[in-house]
Structure prediction request, 239 residues.
Amino acid sequence: MLAKAIAKESGAVFINVRISNLMSKWFGDAQKLVSAVFSLANKLQPAIIFIDEVDSFLGQRRNTDHEALTNMKTEFMSLWDGFTTDQNARVMVLAATNRPSELDEAILRRFTQIFEIGVPSRSERSKILEVILKGENIESNIDYDYIASLCEGFTGSDILELCKQAAFYPIREILNSEKDGTRANSPRPLRQSDLEKALSTSRKGKKAASSAASGLQSPEWIRPSDPEDDQISEKSAVE
Prediction:
């Protein structure tokens, strides 16, 4: 969410790189796909290349790594360096990870700025809720501040998932009414009670995730930043 917001504010094209889309069963295709990403960014600049869970792609190199993965990493870093030397290039590489300690040193050297993005505060969670539900079919009496107070420790992505889960309740009611032969023409507006129901189930998974993450410590080279949703690294400014 934060990376998309940066792209929107800067007026840059947002290119979301999914590692699964870069992998291919054909040897050598991965490097071609990586090259295609940078070629596209160069043509559409100003552009932002975003890699989520970058540790799964550009993590520390090991002897057990497959040759295709190693070649893909090398190709990515080589093309990345090309934009660094081109003063006219307006391409930014952003990456997010929950495991910064697992990133390759060669990758870390290429990031000029590295920030730790914490979880949003209560007021920020309330604003995130408003943004997500803006323009949706909802009841006007939803108390965003109250729902935000129940979402302690939630990230922006967690809140988005919460809203998606809550939206299923009106749909389920339509499906159930169809069985009774009394199907409504359209789903009813989303209620605060829907969010509370979704919250009561999602919190269980959230507590488990928080417990697992509490044992992880950020490396010393990460400096704190404003609360947001993930750890974001930025390469160069988009002009």
Remarks:
- The chain has two domains: 2-111, 122-213.
- Confidence is low (pLDDT under 50) at residues 226-239.
- The two ends are 21 Å apart (CA to CA).
